[in-house]
């Protein structure tokens, strides 16, 4: 349902589950941030979500309500979404929901809270940057999307976090945390009519003086760089090959998911059979597609010893080029469909699994039905997958990321880079 204030709400009643999952999602993330305020979305999540982590921090009373209901509560910030969610027993649904609604819509953070929570986030950022793979990942984003918010870590930098003031956080909240820029999701053992009445009572009055932002940011400018090589503190070579995709707005998610399963998902995939079963090159292999509103990534890769890295790279390139030059077999496509359907069935066995599917649909305004998604997959043919692969995996579209073990002077350089990066 859509409330009078423009807030879209979905109630998915699942009798007998004994628990209820509640979520409030806001279409805002690091892509919406000014470059000099990188990290403000995540800092704001902390300010709303606060549970008194730092000395002198004010405890958000909404937590008391959710905790008293025996609930589990959390929040995340991404490139395009900040969401707040809790999981409570069904007989405590009202108590938990009221706490969550109060947490997001009844803001009360102060300038002191901003100072306290900034220190918490800076410590979190330091821990995140202790991972050498993170150093390489941030470096790739900076080179791939120069001058775009996507080039910066979601958590921000020390310099940008220290520049954020109370007035910045309040203004950012006012601009992005609007009913028309958000959605509400309830999944579990609830009575739909009572749940709808509760939502009307608690969030229909959520008002703001600001109009919702004009949808998602435009597609980023992408550099022509195709190969990214780093030396850092690792023992094996970490290598991945992939390509950028047009994201959710292209409505290719079913085709890309089928291609992912044919190429690299699970033991029946082409890459697993060649890299792991036939040649034993790696035991750490992954194929993933990650789509934002208007840009995405499809990649496959893993860890391999330095001595066998050339063979690993060659097989990846061969299989990507094969996918873009010849149709998949009818048997491969049928198996990919069946595996995709089976995974969705398992996902829909839990409230949080259902919510993850519905949440992505709400975020990107896609059809909410799992059946619509499976129907789209059922209509795919070997020729239609080939057309998608040709558009996305042509040789000139492929990009490579390689993280090599640092040796000798290179190891010293890697340590210095890590220390510098951790500081900023």
What report would you give on this structure?
The structure is a single chain. A hairpin with a 4-residue loop joins strand 3 and strand 4. The protein is an alpha+beta fold. The protein has helices at residues 40-49, 61-68, 93-105, 111-128, 132-144, 158-163, 166-176, 192-203, 253-263, 270-278, 309-323, 330-347, 351-363, 370-378, 382-393, 408-423; strands spanning 8-13, 19-26, 72-77, 82-89, 182-188, 227-232, 237-245, 285-291, 296-304, 399-405. It folds into two domains: 8-203, Metalloenzyme, LuxS/M16 peptidase-like (Cytochrome Bc1 Complex, Chain A, domain 1), CATH 3.30.830; 234-405, 2-Layer Sandwich (Cytochrome Bc1 Complex, Chain A, domain 1), CATH 3.30.830.10.
Keywords:
globular; five-stranded mixed beta sheet; Cytochrome Bc1 Complex, Chain A, domain 1; 424 residues; alpha+beta
CATH class of the largest domain: Alpha Beta
What's the helical proportion of residues? 40-55%
User: What share of residues are in beta strands?
Assistant: 15-25%
Mind telling me the CATH superfamily name of the largest domain?
A: Metalloenzyme, LuxS/M16 peptidase-like
Write the layout of secondary structure elements.
Layout: E1 8-13, E2 19-26, H1 40-49, H2 61-68, E3 72-77, E4 82-89, H3 93-105, H4 111-128, H5 132-144, H6 158-163, H7 166-176, E5 182-188, H8 192-203, E6 227-232, E7 237-245, H9 253-263, H10 270-278, E8 285-291, E9 296-304, H11 309-323, H12 330-347, H13 351-363, H14 370-378, H15 382-393, E10 399-405, H16 408-423
Parallel strand pairs: 1-5, 6-10
Antiparallel strand pairs: 2-4, 2-5, 3-4, 7-9, 7-10, 8-9
Helix pairs in contact: 1-4, 1-7, 2-3, 3-8, 9-12, 9-15, 10-11, 12-14
């Amino acid at each position: 349902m859509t409330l009078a204030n423009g807030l879209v709400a979905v109630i998915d009643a699942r009798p007998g589950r004994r628990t209820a999952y509640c979520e409030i999602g806001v279409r805002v993330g690091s892509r919406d941030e000014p470059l000099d305020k990188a990290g403000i979305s995540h800092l704001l999540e902390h300010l709303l979500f606060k549970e008194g982590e730092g000395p002198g921090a004010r405890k958000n009373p909404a937590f008391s309500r959710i905790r008293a209901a025996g609930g589990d509560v959390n929040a995340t910030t991404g490139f395009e979404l900040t969401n707040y969610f809790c999981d409570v027993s069904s007989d405590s649904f009202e108590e938990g929901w009221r706490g969550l609604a109060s947490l997001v819509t009844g803001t009360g953070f102060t300038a002191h809270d901003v100072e306290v929570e900034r220190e918490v986030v800076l410590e979190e950022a330091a821990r995140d940057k202790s991972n050498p793979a993170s150093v390489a990942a941030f470096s790739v984003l900076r080179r791939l999307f120069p001058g775009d918010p996507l080039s910066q870590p979601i958590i921000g930098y020390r310099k940008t976090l220290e520049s954020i003031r109370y007035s910045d956080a309040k203004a950012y909240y006012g601009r992005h945390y609007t009913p028309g820029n958000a959605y509400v999701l309830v999944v579990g053992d609830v009575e739909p009519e009572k749940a709808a009445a509760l939502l009307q009572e608690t969030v229909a009055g959520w008002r703001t003086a600001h109009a919702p932002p004009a949808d998602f940011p435009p597609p980023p400018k992408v550099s022509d760089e195709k190969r990214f090589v780093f030396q850092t503190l690792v023992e094996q070579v970490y290598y991945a090959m992939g390509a950028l995709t047009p994201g959710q707005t292209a409505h290719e998610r079913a085709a890309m998911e089928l291609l992912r399963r044919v190429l690299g998902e699970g033991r029946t995939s082409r890459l697993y059979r060649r890299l792991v079963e036939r040649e034993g090159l790696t035991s750490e292999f992954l194929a993933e597609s990650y789509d934002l509103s208007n840009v995405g990534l499809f990649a496959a890769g893993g860890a391999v010893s330095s001595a066998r890295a050339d063979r690993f790279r060659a097989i990846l390139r061969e299989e990507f080029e094969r996918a873009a030059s010849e149709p998949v077999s009818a048997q491969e496509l049928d198996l990919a469909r069946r595996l995709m359907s089976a995974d969705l069935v398992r996902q829909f066995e839990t409230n949080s699994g259902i919510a993850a599917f519905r949440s992505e649909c709400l975020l990107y305004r896609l059809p909410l039905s799992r059946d619509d998604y499976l129907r789209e997959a059922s209509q795919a043919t070997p020729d239609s997958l080939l057309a998608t692969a040709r558009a996305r995996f042509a040789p000139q579209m492929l990009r490579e990321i390689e993280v090599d073990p640092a040796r000798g002077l290179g190891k010293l350089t890697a340590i210095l880079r890590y220390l510098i990066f951790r500081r900023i």
